[in-house]
């Protein structure tokens, strides 16, 4: 194993203000929580209602701790955590302001999913929001009752899966309708989303108060003739079609990513998930971190509190201690090919005076850049190429008496943990198995693997995190490619390509890791 | 950073307590972490990874990471095998600690931690014959006496539903009827899925959802939120390991698993069969198989099917010490039997599943929220 070297640290002064992008409830709550920790929060975006209960009190605004810049938008961002230089725009004008941290509070919009049901909206086919507006006052309720009473059908969970918030709205409205004279609610649901506090009770209450809930397996058959709608389902128990011609049809609303959302993500250089929601779906970032240091995402009140915790841990008293040599570019070797800039998952690389520079305030030390740099211009302080090479040499030498000898490059976040656990729990492993610690599998380049073979290892394993679980987002993918490249090369040279394998493992899976290693040894 | 004085007691060392303790210590606050059992980590430290070709975001490995954070943090003082037996409100709180009862935490023999970050890794109770290297006698564990703190975070967690309360499923009688928790531990410990009776790989697997939850007869009027996600992820793991496996899931409604759920759900619907009915009972057949009887959803008539392994998706019930904790700390209990929220100015906070069902991810977020509220309380009370 390679000893960790002590690194050089410096203290830097950082900016203590925080920019909050998005003036909805989550954004304002985050601002209030950040201000409560003594930092100034500037909120930009289009303010929704301020009666949101976010708690950014008048005192906070008076004290200048929360500043709401209505109608201001994010234009551009440069710099790194502690020193983000943000270009803000209002109308034609722009200005540059410095912030220590940035919080994104994305605003989502609801759209009625009537077309999923083949329905056109009109006076009798309405969205959930429109129904809530009607239920809000007596005139609306009167309209719903329509003299002699109405039947109201809710369609939910066929246009999209839905969630407890949507189900809660449907149930609350359905219960309201049951209270109106001669009115009845029917719910057609896919899966009733009761997975949130109080929801099962609400659902039971609905049933007890006469709300009828059908759960057909597929979307009901729906015919619309202007304001007349017929809904048909097949009931499995009575084995007959059940038909309803409701007076009102209420269609569910889908949550969609606001038009600005992806633009903001792109400007900030943070990843979204497959549905376009921020941040990316990676457990190491839960609940509020993004792939960039100092940029956080808040969707609700709980997130807002977590953002304030992160901001406090980052900014503290305004002095941050940084490790200078996490990753350093040798400017005499760099040819500014920008490979490193493109592959850094954490937005830590810039260029200056004819060479790439890595910011210690943003770099996470994954080493992907070092492995990708065609000029070998980048070295990590704790994991220099020379260190790794001598580590491999030692590993092979110490396993020389055993057959097979295996060098496993193990990501410190996953495989190394699993391997150490396997050893401590006494799971059986081949005698010639040696682990070489790497900061991320993305640090393992073709040369290291070749080097291990040249040193005399019978087998080489590159062990990474599962896809989607890499702290550096794509380090495992780079490692997989490189192993594939080596296997090709071995094959072309007429050698056994199976001497080099790539595998993925989670940190908590000691036994599974031992099984994988034993299987590999067996094959060798 | 200025060194803020203040000391917080965190009761319960599951992911909720670990997260709260860690977040507080990151803000330079001293923490006394009290854990009743002999190991930190709670239920989820024994969970298995549910990745197939990709990570399925089950959160189990983040518990491992948080445990490593906590055991390496000098500001957190850990009391294993310790319970709170009294609390006196003075300037702050004076909390009395006592060793927890051996028969409750260590029935017999050798106990093993699930993570290599557990220290000690092995604990031996009285009369254990062959203790592994590094094992510690249970008599050496446990703290007693009073500790003064400024605030208290309660994170005593949940109790999984006792499957024996649903007697017709025969959990105590048939080897191959197991709970979701058993399944987590089996895969974690074996590295792959095997059935208990003979260690063979099961070919036909059934998951029964809502065991103990959403059950009016038991008076359990809540959804446990985690069992649909864990059962689907587990089904995915089983299918990935053996594409020939036939997996059925008996359910009422499928709940969401978090981010990217629609994509995950579409894919899993192609891999396993979803049957909207809750089975009635289970009987043993020749060769360790099981017969499961249910109402066929399409015909509305009784039907039965054969399985090699049946997994009961047990839900999240109030923690077993809820009454005791409620009394000592003066925390109200809600109608479902979980601890209720406490007013923020009392200096007592509730985190994690002690307050109601939630996933690891939700628990981590909630515990962060509690850590901030605790800090704000300390800041205000100083
Ligand atoms: C079968 C099953 C599978 C699951 N799978 C997943 C999954 O894949 N992903 C996911 O996100 N969630 C899953 N969950 C949910 C997950 O278990 C919880 O979210 C998580 O464990 C909650 O953590 P906690 O700290 O609140 O409680 P616990 O894990 O219950 O921890 C509580 C801790 O407090 C201690 N304690 C209790 N009483 C006292 C006392 N009086 N004094 C001191 N200490 C005390 C306990 O010993 C324990 O260590 C699953 C749940 C079940 C039942
Ligand atoms: S990859 Fe290497 S050569 Fe290219 S810009 Fe980065 S440091 Fe310079
Ligand atoms: S080591 Fe990783 S995080 Fe740091 S600059 Fe290189 S690629 Fe970016
Ligand atoms: S599936 Fe769970 S344990 Fe496995 S890597 Fe993903 S989050 Fe971690
Ligand atoms: S999560 Fe699924 S299995 Fe668990 S109680 Fe809710 S509906 Fe039932």
TrEMBL record, chain A:
Superkingdom of the source species: Bacteria
The keyword Iron-sulfur is assigned to this record: yes
Domain annotation 4Fe-4S ferredoxin-type: ranges: 325-353, 354-383
GO MF term set: 4 iron, 4 sulfur cluster binding; metal ion binding; oxidoreductase activity
Annotated keywords: 4Fe-4S, Iron, Iron-sulfur, Metal-binding, Oxidoreductase
Signal peptide boundaries: none
PROSITE patterns the UniProt entry points to: 4FE4S_FER_1 (PS00198), 4FE4S_FER_2 (PS51379)
Alphabetized InterPro entries for the sequence: 4Fe4S_Fe-S-bd, 4Fe4S_Fe_S_CS, FAD/NAD-bd_sf, Fe-S_Ferredoxin, MvhD/FlpD
Keyword NADP set for record: no
Protein name per UniProt: 4Fe-4S binding domain-containing protein
Organism: Desulfocicer vacuolatum DSM 3385
TrEMBL record, chain B:
Domain of life the protein comes from: Bacteria
Keywords on record: 4Fe-4S, Iron, Iron-sulfur, Metal-binding, Oxidoreductase
Domain named FAD/NAD(P)-binding: residues: 7-174
Protein name (database record): Heterodisulfide reductase subunit A
Annotated transmembrane regions: none
MF GO annotations: 4 iron, 4 sulfur cluster binding; metal ion binding; oxidoreductase activity
Pfam entry (one): Pyr_redox_2
Organism: Desulfocicer vacuolatum DSM 3385
